[in-house]
């Protein structure tokens, strides 16, 4: 079989997610390589489910061999300095070594880096696995250990306890033990798509999102949240925002960054201001309902291009006021379901799980989806009144 692909993005995604010939399960081949130019290329992998080996031949004649490295470099600039610029002198030896040798734990060769609010993600070639690409995440400052530890705990529950996988939740591949108090994370890589865009935030900035993509992603995010809620009782993500949603080939959305996540009993920080629910501005612990609010903000932004509330400059007071008292501008592109997620009172937000409404929309037209949401509302109200 020679599978024709138009981009390396497509090739890597196909490699990692073709159905297994033996068990029919989705194949999760944890290997993605940067291709050499040529007409065809043979890559092999293993089914994550039954272990059946798989060889895939790709027709890569349509790939512009020069374009992708440039995109990669744009998305993953080589790290200019060490990951702990502020506290360099306090660097534990092991981190120092990683940076001077450009290798983490003597295994993962650093290609490029991206910085988040708590951690630094490095795109690395795994020298123990034929240069397969992965992401290794380290804390940004030595004190950011709590978030990373929490994240590992959440990933372990999502990946291992449940034993199920979701196409819309990023996967943990490995944990690197270090001499520090916190191990580092190795997760699957999501490679840059059009214009080098990696996250939903990048897609928004590049103006790449159509209405159809917006609705598809809302259903993907819904699926991801349902998956997490099924495996972790009372699951709260705690930091839902476009920067914490990756975009893989499809385009498919993948939820990640579980540094603020947990079962709701933890008191993490309260998420990014543009997506922060009114109740969180007085420092209440994030809840499922504050995730619903953030989901509403993301929905509004995907459909209109801007979040429901914006401050001209970074002005937390103006933003707090808008979230607590303002009304989002009405826009016919935003369905009632999304607006109701933005209610000020957590109790007034959709009582049924709004994620479920979007879940049933998978693979359907927008009209079909709306009809289903209506049905879902009716079913909910009927059950509620019957119960009463
Ligand atoms: N698996 C991944 N694939 C592609 N890009 C990633 C991946 N993990 C992280 N990134 C990039 O690195 C950034 C920082 O990672 P993140 O886990 O969000 O750190 P933080 O917890 O500090 O926000 C992300 O916003 C994203 O741009
Ligand atoms: Mg992040």
Could you describe the 3D structure shown?
The protein is of the alpha+beta class and 388 residues long. It folds into three domains: 3-63; 72-188, Phosphorylase Kinase, domain 1 (2-Layer Sandwich), CATH 3.30.200.20; 194-387, Transferase(Phosphotransferase), domain 1 (Orthogonal Bundle), CATH 1.10.510.10. The chain has helices spanning 8-17, 67-75, 93-100, 145-161, 200-205, 211-231, 288-304, 316-325, 336-341, 354-359, 366-387, and strands at 2-4, 40-46, 53-59, 103-104, 108-115, 119-126, 132-139, 172-176, 184-187, 245-248, 252-255. The model is unreliable at 83-92, 360-367 and 380-388 (pLDDT under 50). The chain binds adenosine-5'-diphosphate and magnesium ion. Residues 114, 116-119, 121, 135, 137, 170, 187-190, 198-199, 243-244, 246, 256-257, 259 line the site of adenosine-5'-diphosphate. Magnesium ion is lined by residues 116-117, 243-244, 257.
